[in-house]
Structures are given as structure tokens and as C-alpha cells.
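chain below, 267 aa
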Amino acid sequence: MKLELYPIFPELQPYIKAICSIESDIATPFISPFRVLPDACVELFINFNNSQDTLATITGRRIFDNSQSFVISRMSDFMDVQMKSKTGFISVCFYPDTAYLFFQLPMNQVADSLTNLQYLWQSEAIQMEEEVGNADRNEQRAVIIQQYLLRQLIRQRFDKTIAYCVQEINKANTPFSVTELANKVGLSQRQLSRKFNYCIGLSTKEFIHINRFIASLVYLKKYPAMSLTDIAYESGYYDQAHFIHDYKSFAGLTPGAVLNAGNLVIC
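prediction:
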């Protein structure tokens, strides 16, 4: 599997985490399966080799159809991916709190699912797919896709409350409550959760939960010799029991197994 990163337009850098190509043309019929752990991100995939042979599963369910481009989120569950060998995609990964600016629907409608881009962008998606398919190089494809993303971007929908809340959650390294956050922004917990569901696809509590798990993954990768108890506390867990429970729920593995697994994709 070959992955290559591409420059992001300056206008899109506040909203997009990464743009890369994913290619494989190996002799074996299938690429070894890998597991992508949840990270609250939304990704756009555009197939540029006109192959409809990709197969992916989320917790054992086949989800890929014959869409040439699709939006997929891995909000609250890991994703097991099995792909046939001949593969070619451009992937656009959005920050957790920015994808809603490009798609005209609440993000909880696409959470933990795959959505055909033509359903979201209609004729614009068809035009983009044709241009991407006709392009000769991946660098050119990445540029074309970003030009279409700029057309879809609606900056005036930017929710400053959500941006502030995500920033506060990201910098917290102690247990963090929805009540604290709601009080800081002057909203009820229900109002705040509605905003989170619309903009991110998760309730406030769910986002805090998954964000804590993501933070612990960073510690686990960076400090493999650190005790699991210390990693749990540094990541904002109340105790090791909750820490281990989240790993079994979000990764399907214990923390030790995550550390030693060779088939995991952790963003």
C-alpha cells in the first residue's frame, strides 16, 4: 500500500487535516486487513482508478457499494477494512468540527456510516468524479478536489461555540464534564448537545468520551514504557477500569494489544 500526502490550499487549511492518495497494485488478490480506530473525523474518498472492487467492513458489516466517491465517518467505532489489491483513492480528512461546513445536512446523519457523495453534492459530485478520473497525476487530482471543496465551503455557517468547545476539550488533561462546558458557553446541556450532533455527529458527552480515548492513544504511542495507570490518568480517565473498558469498546482490544498490534491505523 502506497500513501502520499499533498499540499492543502491555504484557504482550506483551517478545515482539512490531510489530503493523501492511497494506491496499491500488488499481485495478491487481497491486501492484508487493517483496523482503523475511531478519531471523530469525517473523510471524503474519491476513487480514481474506476475500480469498484473495494470491500470494507465496520464491525463485520459490508458497507462499501459501487459509489465512486463517498463520505465516511468513524465517530464511535473502529472500522475493519479489507481491500482488493488494485486500489486508487484520494482521501480528504476533515478536522472533527469542520466537515459540516462542506455538506448540507446534520453530521449525525452520516455518523458511523458511508454516504454516496452524489447524494450530498448531486451534479457537482458527478462533475468532480469525471475530472478526477481524467486527470493524469495524483497531484492534479488533489488540486481538482480542493477546487470543488472551495465551492462547497460555506464559511458563514462556522459555529464559534463549537470551535471554542472543541478547543477547550482538546487542551483539558483532567476529567471534563458536559456541565462545565455548557456553563462556560451559556447554553443548556441539551442545547449544546444539539450543536455537537449537528456540527460533529456526536453528542457533547460522546465527543468528550472519544476525545479522551484519542488522547490516550497519543500517550500510548509516544510513551510505550509508561504504565497503563499513568497513561489513563494523564489522558483524563478517572481510573484504569474505565480506560481499559474504552479500549475494548473503541478498538476491540486491550491497551496492551493495541500497543503490540501491527495492523492498526491510528491518526
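The mean pLDDT is 85. The domain at 160-265 is CATH 1.10.10.60 (Arc Repressor Mutant, subunit A).
thats it, cya
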